[in-house]
Amino acid sequence: MIPTPSQAAALLRAAPIPAALREIAQILHDAGHEAVLVGGAVRDVLLGRLHGDWDLASSATPEEVQTLFKKTIPTGVAHGTVTVVHGRGPNKVHAEVTTFRGEGRYEDGRRPAEVRFLRDLREDLARRDFTINAFAWNPIREIFTDCFDGLGDLGRGVIRAVGDPAQRFQEDGLRAMRAVRLCAVLEYRLDLDTAAAIGGALDVLDKVSRERVHVELFKLLAAARPILGLLPMAETGIWPRVLAPLEREEQLAAIEHIERLPRDPVIRLARLLWPLRADKAVIEKVIDNLRPSRDERARVLALTNPALGPLAHTHDPLQIRRILAKLGRKYAADAAALHAGEWAQAVTIEEAIRGAPLAIGELAIRGDDLVREGLATPGPQMGKTLADLLDWTLEDPRRNTRDRLLAHLRGAG
Ligand SMILES: Nc1ccn([C@@H]2O[C@H](COP(=O)(O)OP(=O)(O)OP(=O)(O)O)[C@@H](O)[C@H]2O)c(=O)n1
């Protein structure tokens, strides 16, 4: 259903806008400036979703904002952004106030302020990425602005670039990733012209900082319906730029099964890279390109280790334990989760490894115990003895007691 502007205004009037934020708008308003709430927060109020930060767009210049408020941070004065810190205790807010982005400020004293505000606001909104991100709400005058039929797109569930899509994606390559991420998170589809323009802007996407691409990709993968972002990633050509080229069938299989996996972006990313497991260098290139944390990198590499391959087919607890002992306990739960959705091995895997040692360090006995008992001497042979003990214990995890391990070494177990 497409909300009307007055329904949108009613929702925004009732929105839990923090008191300190409203005060910021009031102070700007009282000083003769226009101040409106913009961006994802307005969109999310209309969708009944929670949103963290509120952004303000204003006719005030950064210098004017800095004079009006006691505490400000020059976040990006060159781009017109000042962070205002306002309110006390739990009511304190950090609000980003950005001067209307337009062709430049008009010194047009003849026209009434109202007309100038509307023109400058429209220009600001015209530079935003998508119609559903180009709403403005003036909380003081209670005016809702939607110049690009964002409400229509909200009702239809469409991500559509504002104005000329090619221009929007040329301005900022990250918008291509934002488009597919929003499709996944909001469960929307891409407008056709917008999708076509992404295909023409992939070189601009290549220039975007990898950290920002990482953030968008992980938000997409953690969504309830990542399919709705992955399909347009494939169709627009983003996929091979951010991930790695895949055979169509493998790509479709990965997309098809991904929603059965936990909403953990690392496990889901590993699934997308799984068909490439034979080529570790390719997987490393993709993951390193995303500037992962050390932990994310290690988990993706463990989960795409080709040694895990047979997990997809086996029900043999010993084989499962042997495979996972190669990876170590740290990744066993991840591996069980990765194989759960698609290959339905989760229960088997969990049962197979319950109580089982998956590393020498998890044996009920240590090297120095063996020395004390006169069963081994320090040196390379010791490692082999412990590895053999682990292997013997993997056959039956109940063997992992000190007495049974010692008895086995003495030839009695
Ligand atoms: N590449 C970008 C990033 C942001 N914006 C505009 O700036 C607003 C605020 O951006 P940001 O806080 O990054 O995102 P939100 O859309 O507010 O929310 P989120 O990304 O969390 O969904 C967006 O709504 C959009 O109007 C844009 O036009 N182009």
UniProtKB/TrEMBL annotation:
Domain Poly A polymerase head span(s) in chain numbering: 36-160
GO BP field: tRNA processing
Keywords: Magnesium, Metal-binding, Nucleotide-binding, Nucleotidyltransferase, RNA-binding, Transferase, tRNA processing
Protein's UniProt name: tRNA nucleotidyltransferase (CCA-adding enzyme)
Domain tRNA nucleotidyltransferase/poly(A) polymerase RNA and SrmB- binding: 189-243
Cofactor(s) needed: Mg(2+)
MF GO annotations: metal ion binding; nucleotide binding; nucleotidyltransferase activity; tRNA binding
Origin species: Nannocystis exedens
UniProt xrefs under InterPro entries: Bact_CCA-adding_enz_type3_sf (IPR050264), NT_sf (IPR043519), PolA_pol_head_dom (IPR002646), PolyA_RNA-bd (IPR032828)
Lineage: superkingdom: Bacteria
Gene3D superfamilies: 1.10.246.80, Beta Polymerase, domain 2 (3.30.460.10), cca-adding enzyme, domain 2 (1.10.3090.10)
A Pfam family of this chain: PolyA_pol_RNAbd
CDD domains documented for this protein: NT_ClassII-CCAase (cd05398)
PANTHER family: CCA TRNA NUCLEOTIDYLTRANSFERASE 1, MITOCHONDRIAL
